[in-house]
Amino acid sequence: MDNARKDSLKLSVMNATFIELAVHFGVIGFLGYWTFTLIMPFAPIILWSVVLTVALYPVFTWLAAILGGRRVLASVLLTLLGLVVVIGPVTWLGIGLVEGVRGLLERINEGKLSIPPPSEAVKLWPLVGDTVYTYWDEASKNLASAIAPLAPQLRPAGEAVLVAAGSAGMGTLKFLLSVIITGFLFPPGPTLLAATKTFARKVDAIQGEAFVDLSGATIRAISRGVIGLSLLQAALAAVGMTAVGTPGAGVITAVIIALGVVQIGPWVVCIGLIVWGWLNLTAGPAIAFTLCMLAVGLSENILKPFALSHGLKTPMPVTFIGVIGGVLVHGIGGLFVGPVVLAVAWELAKTWIEEPASPAPVAVTPAT
Q1: What crossing angle do the helices spanning 43-66 and 168-185 adopt, rounded to 10°?
Q2: Which of 121, 184, 272, 337 has the smallest number of CB atoms closer than 10 Å to its CB?
Q3: Each residue of 107-130: pLDDT tens digit?
Q4: Cα-Cα-Cα-Cα dihedral sign, residues 176, 180, 185, 187
C-alpha cells in the first residue's frame, strides 16, 4: 500500500512538473512569436543600418580623427551627408525608374514604340534564322501584336517589375530611416562590436569571433569594390545622360547599377549609349558624351581590380541572386542590401564547410 502511494505521489509530481514546463515553454514561445511579429516590419531597416555602419565605419573613424576625436560631430556630419545622397540622387533614381517603366508600358500599349526591321542576313543564322526573322519583322511592324502571344508568360515578370518599381518610394523612406539609425550606431561602435563578439563566442566558442570579423570584412569588401564602384559608374553616367537629355535616364542608371553589382559591368550599356549619342547629337556633344561613357566603362577595368585587391571576391551568381531577390523583396533598397547579405552568408558558409577538422588526440605511450 505504501508503494502504491509513493508511485501515485511520484506520478503527481511528474504531471505537475510537466504541466509547469509546458506552461513555461508556451509562454516563452508566445512571447517569442509576438516579439518576432512586432520586430519583423523593422527588420530590413535594422539590417540596412548595420550594413551601412560596418561599411562606413572606416570613414567615420577617419573623419573623427580629423575632427580631433569628436565622434558625435563626425557621426552627425556623416549622417547629414548620407541624407543628402538619399534625398537627392536615390530619390531621382527611384522616381526615374518608376516613370521609365510606366512610360515604356504606355508606349507599347499605344503602339508608339518601334524597333528597326531585321536585316536579310538574319535568315542565314543556323537553325533559328527564319523564326527569328519572322518574329523580328512582325515586331518591327506591330510590336503590340508581336508580344501579345507572349503575354501570359511575360505577365508575372511584368507584375514583379511594376511591384519593384512601385515600391521605390517606400524603399527610399526605409533607406532614409536606416541612414538616421546608422548615425546613432557610429559612436558606440566598439562597444557594440565587443558585445557581438561575446555573443558569437557563446554560440561558437572556436569560430564565433572569427565569423564576426569575416562578416565585417565581407561587408566592407562588397560595399567598396562592388556597390561603391557601381554607384560611382552610375553617377558619372547619370551626369552625362542628364547633360544631353537622354530619354529614360533613370531606368538606364538603374540598369548600370544592377550590371555593376552582379559584376557584368556597364560596357554593354555604354556602347549602346555611345551609338545613340552619335545618331542623335551634334559632333561636339557626341564627342563629350562618348568620352563620358568611355570613362564609365574603363572604370570597370581600372578601378575594380584595385578596389577588390584587399577584399573578398564573391562569385557572380551569388551577387546576381542577391540583386534579383533583394529587389523583389525590398524594392530599390534591396538592390544594395541583397548582394551584401547573400555575400556574407556565402562567405560564412564556405568558411564553415572548409574548416579543417580538429586533429585526433595522439596517444602517448608511457616510457618504460
Answers
A1: 50
A2: 121
A3: 656 555 566 677 776 677 776 677
A4: positive
The single-letter DSSP state of residue 309 is: T
Asked if residue 200 has pLDDT above 50, the reply is yes
Are 335 and 364 in contact by the 8 Å Cβ rule? The answer is no
Mean pLDDT, residues 292-306 taken together: 80
- Return all residues near 169 (Cβ < 8 A) that are at least 6 apart: 94, 98
Which parts of the chain fold into alpha helices (H)?
2-39, 43-66, 71-85, 91-110, 129-141, 143-147, 151-166, 168-185, 189-203, 208-222, 229-244, 249-261, 267-280, 283-308, 316-330, 334-354
DSSP 86: I
Domain boundaries, the chain: 44-158+166-187, 189-353
Taking only the tens place, the pLDDT of each residue in 338-353 is 777 787 888 778 777 7
Sequence-distant (≥ 6) Cβ neighbours of residue 110 within 8 angstroms: none
C-alpha 240/C-alpha 296 separation (Å) is: 10
Q: Which of 33-37, 145-149, 204-208, 354-358 has the lowest mean pLDDT?
A: 354-358
First to last CA, the chain: 63
Q: From 98, 261, 259, select the one nearest 273 (Cα to Cα).
A: 259
What's the grid cell of residue 46? 535594422
State the DSSP string of 249-296: HHHHHHHHHHHHHTT--SHHHHHHHHHHHHHHS-HHHHHHHHHHHHHH
